[in-house]
Design goal:
It is built from 9 helices and 5 strands. By secondary structure, the chain is α/β, with parallel strands linked by helices. It has one domain: P-loop containing nucleotide triphosphate hydrolases (Rossmann fold), CATH 3.40.50. The protein has a 5-stranded parallel beta sheet, sandwiched between helices. The N and C termini lie close together (about 10 Å). The structure holds ligand Z5A. Ligand Z5A binds next to helix 1, helix 4, helix 6 and helix 8.
C-alpha cells in the first residue's frame, strides 16, 4: 500500500550552495533507511528538462517575460504530475533544488510580474502539493555570484546569470520575506563554511523530523 512521502525544497540565490546541500539532505534520510529521490527545477522529467533548455539558453529571439513564466509553470506541472506526486505516493523522500518559491522570487520580485497570476498558475501546476520543508540558503548576493563565477570558469553565462546585482537583491529580499511568512521555511546561513552549513541543516532535519531522526543509522523501513 502506498503512503505519503516527504517533499523538501531548497531555495536561494545563485551560488548559495543548493546543489551541494541537496546531497547532504539526501544522505541524512537514506542513512536512516528512507528511499530518496533528488530532482531540480526547471526540469525533473524528460519534457520538463527540454523546457529547461529553452529557459536557460540565451537566444537571438528574446523570451518574453510571460512566456518565461508560463514555461516555468508548464515544466512544473509536468514535474509534479509525472515525478513528484508518484514518488510521494510511493512513500519516498523527494528533494528538489528550487520549486514555486523561485517563481515568486525571480519572476515576481525580480521581474515584477503579477504575484496573483503566479499564485493562479501555482494552483494549477501544484494540484494541492506543498513542501513539508523549504530550506532557504541565504547569503549576500555578491558572495553567491562570486561562488557561481568561480565554479563557471570560462563557460558562458546562462539567461539568468546575465541579470544585474539589483535583480538578485530583490530576489534575496523576497525569499526572506516568504520565509518570515511561512512556517514550512527554515533559513540557513549559507555564508558559513560548508561543514557549518551541513550542521545547521542536520539540526533543522532533526527538529522537523524527530521520528526519522530517532531511527538507527542503516535502518530500513517502508
Ligand atoms: N528559475 C526561475 O527564474 N524561476 C523558477 O521558478 C525556477 C528557476 C525554478 C536555474 O539555474 C535558474 O532558473 C536559476 C533561477 C531560475 N537561475 N539563477 N540564478 P541553475 O539550476 O543552473 O542554477 P541555480 O539554481 O542558481 O544553482 P547554482 O548556480 O548551481 O547554485 P547552487 O546550487 O545554489 O550552488 P552550488 O552549485 O551548490 O555551489 C556553488 C559553488 O559554491 C560550488 O563551487 C560549491 O562548491 C561552492 N560552495 C557551496 N557551498 C559553499 C560554502 N558553504 N562555502 C564555500 N563554497 C561553497
Amino acid at each position: 500500500m502506498s503512503h505519503a512521502g516527504i517533499f523538501i525544497t531548497l531555495e536561494g540565490v545563485e551560488g548559495a550552495g543548493k546543489s551541494t546541500a541537496v546531497a547532504g539532505v539526501a544522505a541524512w534520510f537514506s542513512q536512516r533507511g528512507c528511499v530518496v529521490e533528488c530532482s531540480r527545477e526547471p526540469g525533473g522529467t524528460p519534457l520538463a528538462e527540454s523546457m529547461r533548455q529553452i529557459l536557460l539558453t540565451p537566444t537571438a529571439e528574446a523570451l518574453a517575460e510571460p512566456a518565461e513564466l508560463m514555461l516555468l509553470f508548464a515544466a512544473r506541472a509536468q514535474h509534479v504530475a509525472h515525478r513528484i506526486k508518484p514518488a510521494l505516493a510511493a512513500g519516498k523522500v523527494l528533494i528538489c533544488d528550487r520549486f514555486t518559491d523561485s517563481s515568486r522570487a525571480y519572476q515576481g520580485a525580480g521581474r515584477g510580474m503579477d504575484q496573483s497570476l503566479i499564485e493562479t498558475l501555482a494552483t494549477a501546476a501544484e494540484q494541492g502539493l506543498e513542501p513539508n520543508l523549504t530550506l532557504l540558503l541565504d547569503l549576500p548576493v555578491a558572495e553567491g555570484l562570486a561562488r557561481a563565477a568561480a565554479r563557471r570558469g570560462l563557460s558562458a553565462h546562462d539567461r539568468f546569470e546575465r541579470e544585474s546585482a539589483d535583480f538578485f537583491e530583490r530576489i534575496r529580499a523576497e525569499f526572506l520575506h516568504l520565509a518570515a511568512q511561512h512556517p514550512r521555511f527554515a533559513v540557513i546561513d549559507a555564508a558559513a563554511p560548508l561543514v557549518a552549513v551541513q550542521a545547521q541543516i542536520h539540526a533543522v532535519l532533526q527538529a522537523r523530523f524527530p521520528l526519522i531522526a530517532a531511527l538507527p543509522l542503516g535502518a530500513h523501513h517502508g
